[in-house]
């Protein structure tokens, strides 16, 4: 049974051997093929010239792109305007909601103040009654 370290070493050596053999076979192929000379390169046919684009079709495409650009700019302007309008209306609704909350808070605070005053008056009357009762009990003895 081989240890993992030994197995990795053997696999590495096999891989190195395979790479070296592939390099040798590639070098043999290169040596067998004749080298390209300047004359051979010059004798090779040049690629055919590309046909010139029709100027009218290019002009038509440019006009179409310009029209599309104008349309897209108009759409962008409309979208910006609609977003700004929605933002303004949302800001107005938010301001109205804040104003309503403040109004409701003031009303609740006023109601709580009135209840606190009424409770203080009841407490004062209660203690006055307790004091009067205590005085009456003390006087009755």
Describe this entry's structure for a reader.
The protein is mainly α and 141 residues long. 86% of the residues lie in helices and 0% in strands. It is built from 3 helices and no strands. It is elongated and about 140 Å long.
Keywords:
141 residues, mainly alpha, elongated
Task: Describe the structure concisely for a colleague.
Helix content is 86%, strand content 0%.
Blueprint (SSEs and pairs):
Layout lengths: L3 H29 L5 H6 L11 H86 L1
Q: What is the first-to-last residue Cα distance?
A: 115 Å
Low-confidence stretches: none
Radius of gyration: 49 Å
Shape: elongated
Biggest sheet: strands, sense, closure?
none
Mean pLDDT: 85
Note the beta-strand portion.
under 5%
């Amino acid at each position: 049974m081989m240890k993992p370290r030994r197995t990795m070493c053997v696999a590495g050596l096999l891989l190195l051997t395979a790479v070296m053999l592939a390099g040798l076979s590639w070098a043999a192929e290169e040596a067998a093929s004749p080298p390209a000379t300047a004359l051979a390169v010059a004798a090779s046919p040049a690629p055919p010239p590309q046909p010139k684009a029709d100027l009218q079709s290019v002009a038509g495409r440019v006009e179409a792109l310009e029209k599309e650009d104008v349309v897209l700019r108009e759409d962008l302007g409309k979208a910006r305007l609609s977003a700004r309008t929605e933002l303004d209306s949302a800001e107005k609704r938010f301001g109205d909601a804040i104003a309503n909350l403040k109004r409701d808070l003031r009303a609740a605070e006023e109601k709580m103040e009135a209840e606190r005053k009424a409770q203080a008056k009841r407490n004062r009357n209660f203690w006055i009654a307790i004091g009067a009762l205590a005085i009456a009990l003390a006087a009755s003895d």
